[in-house]
Structure formats: structure tokens, C-alpha cells
Amino acid sequence: MHIVTCVKQTPKSENIKIDPVTGCLIRAGADSAMNPFDEYALEAAVTLKEQVGGTVSALTMGPPQAETVLRDSIARGADRIYQLGDRALAGSDTWSTSYALSKGIEKINALQKVDVVICGKQTNDSDTGHIGPQISAWLQWPNAAFVKKIVRVNQKSIVVERLTEDGSEILELPFPCVLSVVKEISNPRVRSVKGRIAAKRAIITAWTADDIGADKEKLGIAHCPTRVVKSFTPTRENTAQIVDGTNGREKGKNLVSLLKENHLI
Amino acid sequence: MNYAINEIEEAVLQTTREFAQKKIKPIRAEMDEKEQFSKQLWQEYCKSGLFGLWLPEFYGGLGGGITCLAMAFEELSRACAGLALTPGTSALGAIPMFLAATAQQRERWCPDLASGKKLWAFALTEPEAGSDATALKTTAIRDGDYYVVNGTKHFISTGKEADFYTVAVNTNPSRGARGISLLVIEKGTPGFSFGKKEVKMGIRSNPTYELIFENVRVPKENLLGSEGRGLLYVQETLDYSRPGVAAQAIGIAQGALDTTIPYLRTRKQFGQPLITFQALGHKVAELSAKIEAGRSLVYTLTHQMDKEFIPAVQNALANQTTVHDELKKLKGARWTKYSAQAKLFCSNVAMEVADECVTLCGGIAYMRDFPLEKYMRDAKITQIYEGTVHIQKNEILTALIKEYAAKGEE
Amino acid sequence: MPVKDCKNVWILAEVQHGKLSPTAYELLHAGRKLADDLEEKLCAVVLGNHVGKYARDLIEHGADVVYVCESDQLENYVDDTYAKVLTDLVQTYHPNKLLIPATNCGRALSAKTAVFVGTGLTADATQVQINKADGQLYATRPTFGGNLMATITCAKTRPEMCSLRPMAYDKAPLQKGRKGEIVKFPFTKGKHASLAKFLEFIKSKEEGLDLSEVTVIVAGGRGVGKKEGFHLLHQLAQRLGGAVGASRGPVDSGWIDYRYQIGLTGRTVKPKLYIACGISGQIQHMAGVSGADVIVAINKDPNAPIMKMAHYAVEGDMYEVIPAMLEALS
């Protein structure tokens, strides 16, 4: 089985800082790492490979320094790594990004037939959750989102359980297909010693927009359909009323009285 | 100080440190409290490739040596000495096999050992034979293609969970200690059962069991090396494994100090952080120096060992011989004295550091919610297993007497 | 079709397992304002099996037109099928704006449809408005973990699509007897069917009330300290007729199921009363409770960010405060 996982280098969640004046992300000094949701996706892919045999390819789109996320993928059990890097891709929105990734997957598919694409449910920097379903749309492959479990898999199809607000649903998807997965899908392993050493030596296949045959009219900030017209940091107010009391017990009693007075309970 | 001298050792440190933080720390208190072995953690160890560090790549290992094993054991024990024993005791049980096994035997056992699919354990101690291993009573009498094993082993770490047991038996009781041999006995062999599970002071997440052998028929192919040479292999095993216990002791000591220093920095009494009281601060400084001295001793020793161990393993693979024979051909050093010195020193450091740290932190450290008391309970085992501190002194003394006797009067 | 010829504001009225999702009314509320500002019609799309029965209700909550596509093939949500039908509808009627609820299904459906249609999509917006100058949809959403709000537009393609966060808007009021048009749209198997097969729905067996439906939520954070602490929160929630929630910490620590997570990576809630226990108040969490009428913070740390954002701040140990509350309530 050939599984492709899309991974992205993003700022570490705890390090995200916004310049209050410009509203821009302060990248200097901010550590970056693999998008945490992609860790779950990659672990799911590697687990699947270990169960049924096959290959895991990791694909990223990003500037040269994004190669670290691909090396990290090797350390986590991926076999091959591909990077889409091109100035033409800069500033792409999810529509453009998913287009470029789908072209990359087509190219990988031409090298070795792809059965499943696994994406994280969203990234921790833009939180859209678009990429998985959109890749499937470009490729015209069936997809399922919010997948929490791989129920079973055979030569032709995969059965998955996805999370809904009121429970879960079981779906069967024929290959090739695209899954976007939530945290419950896997428990990422600690990168093995062998993986860490292999990561240093791994060879990255790097492609430009031309290499993947992408239509440049669909790429980058100049061509993508959406645009950020304004950004601002949310304001917080400070209006808290301090609940009095000499100790926790007294404060608890006073709180109940306050809530009752204000008809909140 | 960082003692890693190559890429492999560096990666071992990174992996085990991350593993300790992400996989061990979150469960250590619960597993200790419940005295429960974690099968899930075992699987995590497998996924991170932590069983095959010291085994050659040919069998799916990493090709590292004793240093890798010790470094891993130190870093894992720094989080929890009990949970660190899953790969730790598997290595201990497998080292005698790996030293004495023929190429065919290695082929049979090493791949599953390296992947972690099968766990190994070492069974030497008996109710009547502790420090004096020569007194062991378990017999293995040859009957055709089998040995028939009878006897009882006790205090066996990772008991019941392990799949293969390297068991010291007497194949020729009339020859006493010279009749001792090593047999590999697989769990599930008819007549092989588990007795009492011990309730322990420390390392409680690792099960300690009694093994009972009643007319257990073990194929003769499971004999390691030749009959009657069991104690030799045991000694050689301990030479390689005691630095591991020493490393574990250093890990425990470091873990205790890692818990203590941040507490002393934040806890204020008499209006100032505890660490600024020189009596306490100086104690911390002194403990840290002892830990570093112990660590330095361990890795200086293991790096020397690896200079012989790794080539011997490679030769054994190339020549289809045993690692034991190849080590002999290299005419290397006997490590008994140095291993015993490392274990003696480091286990004493562990106990001292853990004890002092509990005192430094005071009341809170006596409470189970705070991880320090566990370090103190766990530290104690390093002074006991694989030879008590007294046995280590015997080993050192015997070696010294021999050395000086050989020198004659200079 | 040229941008200027695309007319009307559409909303997708989601039906989940035979139940019209409350998000339908929220989207009608948001959409009504947009349509009025544009002086265009507000249209609702409802897809499913036997869903025509909801059309009247949608009209009485503000829709001028309801497009209904019914088929047993639409009984359950399958990404491909739904996206193909929705795309077909869009390409038949050329709406100007299209709002979809940012529920699990809605997020995936909106993304896939945007590519099929060839238009831009803003994810998980919390506010939508029409820019008076050019009639464009300005959709504002939290990004970078809620540290930044971004307003996003889609100038050149139509419809401008946006998924709208559940509970970001109040429900549209019922206007009994309101009139509107119902348009049936045919389901075409060859054109709309998917290769994916829906097999089964497993209803959640989780005990406790649904977070999105309760008026009181008692939520715990890392400060709860242990799994067992949530029993205490359960007791308080039960006494107040509410439900228990959590910030990310306890979920990551395995003290409580992900289903209860509130915040940017969890759910958005809009209770009347939100009692946050041992929650520091990271912006990622607060993004999920900004719709709460009243927030009470119980925290040992007087400097925790939540103590400033709450309406009532109690500096104290929840293990002292909550038992006292329970006593006072009994």
C-alpha cells in the first residue's frame, strides 16, 4: 500500500506571538515544528504500513527551510519525502495550496500508484481544515474528514470511523481516497534512534511548480481567490468582580449568593 | 556532561530523553501505585526501537554497544527506574544468550529480541542461592534430546511478562559449581509456571515473580555454550550488565536532583528561596559532583568495553562463531573489577542523592504526590540486584589481590 | 457567469441524522442581514432524505427561497455526494454568497464545494458583513490559535463562500406565516453519486448533556490536577442543571474525552453561565467561550489571564470552593 501524508511546518503552538502593532506573526525566534495534527496523520500512515506493508511518502509545500519537517517525517517512519518549493507558491490560500499539493500527489502517483492520502484535520496556524477535502476535490477522489479510527483495510478499500457532533459514522472508501484525521486516530511514537539517523541522511525530492505541471494561474498570492484585507488582535476587557471571602469555603458560599442575586442560577 | 561520542549515541540520548518525557513521566506514578506492568509502554518501546540498541543491524538492531545500552538505561531511569526495566531486563536476560549462542541460536532468537516482540529475563537467584550462585539447586538432567528441569527461581524481574528466560541450572550436580549451565526456557513450556508475585519497596511497575520448574522438558538446542560453563557466562554477563545498573543509578540520582533543584528555587522559607541557604545549596552542589563523577566512570568504562565488544560481535557474525569466543580471541581486558567499582560507586551515589534530596525538600518529599520518595525507594534496588554492594566489594578485592599477587614484589 | 450577475445570499441548512441542525437558524440570522444589506434574496438549501418538511420552518425563520434536494442517497452525509449536489445547485442558480455551518460535516463540505465550484472560502468565521462600497462579503475569523483576527474577502469569484462557526450568531426569530418559495431540485444518481459508501451511524453513548444545548457549563482545566477532579465538576454541573466541559490540558492528559473540549480546537459554546475551574484562560480556550453571557473563574492564581476576562473571579482552590458551593446549593 502506498500512503501519502501531507505535512506542514508551523510555529510551535506555545510560541505563537503576534506583533500588536502590525498584526503580523513574529517569526523571529519562534521555533517551528511539524503541525501537531500532521503528527497524528503520519503516525496513522506508518501504523497502517506496519500492519499491511507498503510505503509512506511525506509531501510538504514550503520554503527551503521546510525540509526539516520532511526529515522529521523520516524520523517518524516515512520512507520517501517530497518538497514543493517555488516562489510562485508563496502566499497561496487553501484553494491554491490544495491545488499544488494535488498536483504533487499526481506526480507521486505517477511514480508509484497512491492508495490513500492522509492529512491532519487542520493546521495549528491557520486552522481551516480545508486541505484534505480540497485535495480530494482536485483529484476527484472520494474523501472522509474528521476520521478518528481506521476500522479495517483490504486490497481495494478502507473502512473508517469519523467523528460527528452527535456520535460517529462508519464509511467505506475505495482506493484511491483522501482522509483527514483527528487526534484520536493515533498516539505518535517517539522518534526512534534509527529514524533520527536516517533523517539526517535522507534525500529530498524537490519539485518546482513546473516539475509538477501546475497551472501558474492558480498559484500564489496573485492568483488565489481569497485575500486578507485586515487583521487585528482581539481586545480583552477587564471587568472582573472579585468574589470576597477569607477562605475558599467562604468565597464559594458568597459566589452562590452572588449568582442567585443576579438570577444566574 | 555529554558523553556521546558518535551519531548513534547522540541519537540514543535524544530518543530516550524524549521518550522519558512523553511516554514514561505521564504514567510512572500510576504504574508504581498500581504495581502494574505496562504492556502499552512495551509497545511504545518497540515503536521507538529501544530494544535493539546494542544488537547488530544484521538482526534488526542498531549496531551500538554497551554504551548505548547504558545511556538509554540512565535516561529512562531518570524518569522511572521501574518502567525502564522493560528493555533493561530484556537486555540482561539476553546478554548471556548473545555471548554464548551459536550463529544458529542467534538467528533464532535475536530478531524478535531486537524488535522487542519477545521479552527476555534472567533467572539466577534461588531461595537458597542469592549472592552465592554456586549453591543453586535447580537441576537439568539430560534425557535424550531434552533436559528435564526441576527447581525454583525467585525474585525474577519482568517475571511472567517475559517470553524467554535464561535460566542457570545444574546439569551435573555431582560436579557442584562446575556443573552449572545456562538453558533458555520459553514461557508456556509444559511444567513451567509462575509462583508468587512479590510486593516490593521500589521498582514496583516491574513484576518480580517466582519461577517454578516441574519436569520441564527443554530441547537440548536451548543449551547456551557448553555444559558446566554457566558461571563463566554469568560472570561475563555481569561484567557487561553492571555498568548498566550503575547507569540506572546515575539516572535515578539525576532524576531526584532534577526534581529537587526547581523546588528549592521556588520554595521560600524565612522570606527567601531555600536554595539560597548555603547549607542546602552546598549540599546540592556536592551531590551534583558525585553524580557527574559516577557518570564519568560509567561511560569511560563502557567506551573501553565497546572497543572490544563491537568488533567481537562483528567477527562473530562474519565467522559464524560465538561472541564469547571472539572476545577471547581479542584477548581483551577482564572488566569485573571496573564494573564492580562502577556499580558500587554509582549505586551508593544514587542512594545518597535520593536520601539527601528527600531531606532537602522536607515534608513535601515524604508525600506520595511528590515524585521524590519514589526515587528513594527505587534507588535502593541498585545497591542490591546484580550483586549487592558487599559482593561488588568482594569482586574488587579479589581482583586487587590477584593483581598484586601477579606483580610480585616490586 | 460574471460576478455582477450572481445574486442572492445562500445558506446551507444542515440536517444531521434526520434532525435540522440549530445552525440553520443561526445562518438564517446572519444571512438575513447580508441579504437585506445587498437588497437580495435569502435562500436556504436543504439536502437529505425527507427534508422537504423543513422548508416551511426555514421560510418562517427568514428564508425567501428554499431549495430542497431529497433522495435516499442523501440520507447520510457523504462528502462527495453532498458536494456534487451543492455544486450543481450553485452552477444552476449562481448565488452571490454562500454560508455553510462550520460543523464537522460543514467544514469538509464547504472546502470540497469551493474547489468544485472554483471559488474562495473563508473557514470558521465568527462574523460576516457586507462591505458597503463594493458589496463584498467581509468574513472575520480567528487565526494563529485565536491570537489574531483576520478579515478575508474573495473579490473575483462567486459565490463568496464562508463557513460560519456554530453559535457565533443567535438564532433567527420565528415569524409565523411568513411566505416564501420552495424549489425542488432533482437528485441525479449518475451525476451526484459517490464511490464512498456510508455504512453505519453510531450514536454517542457519552453520558451528560450536550454542551451546545445547555445553559450552564462547569469546565475544568489543568488546575483540576487529576481525572477524579472531574467528578466534583460533574456534581456541580448536575446541581445547576448543566454539563461539564474542559480546556485542552485535561483532554491531552486523558482526564476527559475530546468531545468535551471547548476552545479553538474543540467546541464553541454559548451558555448563560460558564464556570471555569482551574482554567488559566489561554486565548485558544477563551475563543470557544466568548459567547457566554457570564463567566466565573475559580483559580488559585490571581494573575491567571482568566481572572481578568471573567465577570466573577474567585481566587481559591476549587477543591475548597466547589464543595462549599454544593453545600450552599443544597
Please tell me about this protein's structure.
The complex is a heterotrimer of chains A (265), B (410) and C (330). Chain A is α/β, with parallel strands linked by helices. Chain A folds into two domains: 2-223, HUPs (Rossmann fold), CATH 3.40.50.620; 235-265, no CATH class. Helix content of chain A is 30%, strand content 27%. Chain A is built from seven helices and 13 strands. Chain A has a nine-stranded mixed β-sheet with strand order 9-8-7-10-6-1-4-5-11, with helices on both faces. In chain A, helix 2 runs antiparallel to helix 5 and helix 3 (94-111) packs across helix 4. The longest helix of chain A is centred in the middle third of the chain and has 18 residues, at 94-111. With 410 residues, chain B is α+β, with helices and mostly antiparallel strands. Chain B has three domains: 7-119, Acyl-CoA dehydrogenase/oxidase, N-terminal domain (Butyryl-Coa Dehydrogenase, subunit A, domain 1), CATH 1.10.540.10; 121-224, Butyryl-CoA Dehydrogenase, subunit A, domain 2 (Beta Barrel); 230-404, Butyryl-CoA Dehydrogenase, subunit A, domain 3 (Up-down Bundle). Chain B contains twelve helices and ten strands. Chain B has helices at residues 7-34, 39-47, 66-79, 85-100, 103-115, 230-266, 278-319, 323-329, 336-361, 363-366, 372-382, 389-407, and strands spanning 120-123, 139-143, 146-157, 164-170, 180-186, 192-197, 208-219, 223-224, 268-269, 272-273. In chain B, the strands form three sheets. Chain B has a four-stranded mixed β-sheet, covered by helices on one side. Chain B has a four-stranded antiparallel β-sheet with strand order 2-3-7-6, with no helix packed on it. In chain B, helix 6 (230-266) runs antiparallel to helix 7 (278-319). The longest helix of chain B has 42 residues, at 278-319. Chain B starts with 6 loop residues before the first helix and ends with a helix. With 330 residues, chain C is an alpha/beta fold. Chain C has ten helices and 18 strands. In chain C, the strands form four sheets. Chain C has a seven-stranded parallel β-sheet, sandwiched between helices. The longest helix of chain C is centred in the N-terminal third of the chain and has 16 residues, at 23-38. The N and C termini of chain C lie far apart (65 Å). Chains A and C meet through helix 3, helix 4, strand 7, strand 8 and strand 9 of A and helix 3, helix 4, strand 7, strand 9 and strand 10 of C.
